């Protein structure tokens, strides 16, 4: 692993220079990490990718347009569940997904689950709730036990469970005009490190496992450094079966959906193949409308990108070459010429 370029400040006010092991809110790359935890729970037989998720939940997850159709983790992880970002997915601690998802705006009323792709952040609070219901543990604790500790990552969701060292080194996100967008910590923890209740309370004893799933921001709230991001890329490329079996890595990276011109929203050719929490770029024999040859070499890459709070990020691996890249940029304007978030997504 080598660091090819780094410049700027982790915080302008303190003047602290940016370092490769400084943690940053990495946005939608978080989804890949959630998928890793799901696969670990599958391997320990606590979850089944193709079971009706109502087997785990004590509430009913169904598309109101297709109330008899089961929804699976495979469909949720690959954005084929029918959920849409038509409602707020950053729900307060006292919100209940069961109630929120009764809103028809949260669903695709035209397609059954498994029939159509549409990238939606809302899938991931639902996945987090399923993980909690299956294990009896909070999402943040699951991530620590299943992913961060085994891979020796100094990472956390929404700063909770991060060490004081990570708080001291937190990267502040700025808008292009210099305004603070997020995480101006300057060595001090936030008063509330999760999404609070609707009345502003931050009492985690009020949190109900398997009911909300959103307070740790599973769709994009991972704080991790570029160095630790690269470690995960190396794990994928080694594929040695130590952290996850080769079969599990293959299930994640093999496309569960491939764009054929009419089976989903490619967002102008950006999404053309997607695995389980893994975006696949430049798949061979892809549709002519695809514009996902991000690296210009027509080789297939696995990974994920992120964009939020004027940050763009990515973790991408090329398995044949055994190489990859992990990066983030801050203060990125919305009309950045680099285009989509390979170089949006939360």
TrEMBL record:
Pfam families: Beta-lactamase. It comes from the Bacteria. Residues 8-328 form the Beta-lactamase-related domain. This is Beta-lactamase family protein. It comes from Parasphingorhabdus halotolerans.
């Amino acid at each position: 692993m080598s660091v090819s370029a780094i410049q700027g400040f982790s915080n302008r006010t303190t003047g602290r220079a940016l370092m490769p092991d400084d943690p940053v809110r990495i946005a939608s790359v978080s989804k890949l990490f959630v998928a890793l935890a799901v696969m670990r729970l599958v391997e320990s037989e606590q979850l089944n990718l193709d079971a009706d998720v109502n087997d785990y939940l004590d509430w009913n997850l169904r598309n109101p347009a297709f109330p008899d159709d089961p929804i699976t983790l495979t469909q949720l992880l690959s954005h084929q569940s029918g959920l849409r970002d038509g409602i707020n997915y950053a729900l307060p601690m006292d919100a209940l997904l069961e109630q929120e998802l009764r809103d028809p705006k949260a669903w695709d009323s035209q397609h059954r689950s498994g029939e159509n792709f549409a990238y939606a952040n809302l899938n991931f609070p639902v996945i987090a709730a399923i993980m909690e219901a299956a294990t009896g543990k909070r999402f943040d604790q699951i991530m620590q036990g299943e992913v961060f500790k085994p891979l020796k990552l100094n990472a956390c969701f929404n700063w909770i469970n991060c060490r004081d060292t990570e708080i001291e080194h937190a990267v502040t996100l700025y808008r292009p005009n210099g305004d603070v967008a997020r995480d101006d910590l300057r060595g001090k923890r936030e008063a509330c490190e999760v999404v609070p209740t609707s009345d502003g309370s931050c009492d985690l004893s009020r949190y109900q496992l398997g009911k909300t799933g959103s307070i740790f921001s599973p769709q994009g709230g991972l704080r991790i450094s570029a160095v630790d991001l690269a470690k995960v890329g190396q794990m994928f490329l080694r594929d040695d079966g130590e952290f996850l079996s080769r079969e599990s890595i293959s299930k994640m990276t093999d496309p569960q959906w491939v764009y054929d011109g009419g089976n989903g929203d490619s967002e102008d050719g950006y999404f053309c193949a997607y695995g389980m929490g893994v975006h696949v770029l430049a798949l061979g024999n892809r549709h002519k409308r695809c514009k996902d040859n991000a690296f210009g070499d027509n080789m297939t890459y696995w990974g994920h990108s992120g964009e939020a709070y004027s940050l763009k990020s990515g973790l991408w691996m090329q398995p044949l070459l055994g190489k990859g890249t992990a990066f983030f940029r801050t203060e990125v304007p919305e009309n950045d010429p680099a285009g989509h978030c390979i170089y949006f997504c939360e």
